[in-house]
Structures are given as structure tokens and as C-alpha cells.
Amino acid sequence: METQRLRIRPLQGDDLNACHRLYLDIDWANKEVSEEENLKQRREWLEWTVRNYEQLALLYQPPYGDRAIVHRESGRFIGLVGLVPLLAPFGQLPSLGGVQGARFSAEVGLFWALSPSEQRQGHATEAARALVDHAFGTLKLGRILASTERTNAASIHVMRRLGMRIEENPYPEPPWFQVTGILENGSRPNHSA
User: Fold this and answer.
1) Could you read off the pLDDT of 169-183 as tens digits, one per residue?
2) How far apart, in whole angstroms, are the C-alpha atoms of residue 54 and residue 58?
3) Quick one: three-class SS letters along 116-154?
4) Structure pTM?
5) Residue 13 phi/psi, 5° resolution?
6) Percentage of the chain surpassing pLDDT 90?
7) Do 67 and 82 form a contact (C-beta atoms < 8 A)?
8) Residue 4 and residue 72: Cα distance in Å, rounded?
9) Does 112 map to a domain?
10) Which of 122, 145, 167, 172 has the fewest other C-beta atoms within 10 Å?
11) Is-cis flag, bond preceding 85, omega within 30?
């Protein structure tokens, strides 16, 4: 996929150092293990991710997983975007039932993570919008969700720019289920990428 400034492509083995650096820079690396162990974990994840593309296609399943975001002109890696499975008590959200203690259900989630030096330039929105267009246009998905913490104003801003309806879990449990962006196919405004 290509946008005006970006290319979204499958990850490949030589993305290891860039992915590792991203996880360190955005503070997602495991603080309880050494950097060597973190690199090993990232290598295993990347190998699994690359194999996952082919295996999901063979099973006629959605193309779950992360993709690299790179600058079109330079090819420089700037982050990740992807479709991911989300499992949460979505029925607790007001528009999806508003039932306290709702059972968990699975949804297709939208994920993005950018290097700090690339943030606040519209790259996350541009990459996520391209993936939404693919998910709704090519995959014919009916709905995409994204989730984050109440304190993550940047992600909530991206959700809003994508046209997502923002809903907060009105209940205290589970504590990690805080803010969800919901985008129904056909409900978003037209944007050029």
C-alpha cells in the first residue's frame, strides 16, 4: 500500500534492528530482561510475523499482523501499523450494549506505533487510514476498533482524525479496558491519504 508520503509493506528479516529500536524508543521493551534478551524476543516475534503472513493466507484468514511503515522516497523505517485481534468486554461500551461485566468478544483491531521522531506529523493517521481503506474496501470488514489508555491523547487524536467514535468503558473493570475507537464501514468521512 502506498499513500502520498508513505509505503506500508510486510515486515522482513532485515527490519529487526529498526523494530527493536522502535520498541525501545516507545518504552515497550520488557524492562525485566536484558537488552540482549529483548533483541532475542523481538527476533522471535519478527520471524513469527513473517511466517504468519503466509500461513494466514493459506487458511483464508484476515491478514492479521503488523506491517512496516516506511517513507516512500527514502525507504526509511518509521513505525508499524496493522490489523490485530482485540479481545475485550466490548459489550460494556454504551453503543455496544452498556452491560457491566459483559462477556469478552473478539473484534478486528487497528494498531499503530511510530518512532518518537516521526510523531506529530500525521504519519500515524496517514498509515492507519490506508489500512482502514484496505480493510473496508478490499477485505469488506464491517467494523474496526482501536483501543488505548485514557492518558494516550495522541492515539485518541488519531482515532478522531480517522472518524472513529470514541467511547470510554464506564465501568472500573477490567482496568486496562479504557478507551475504544469504533469505526463502522460506511460511517466515516471521505479523506484523501
Assistant:
1) 999 999 999 999 999
2) 6
3) HHHCCCCHHHHHHHHHHHHHHHCCCCCEEEEEECCCCHH
4) 0.91
5) -55, -35
6) 91
7) yes
8) 8
9) yes
10) 172
11) no
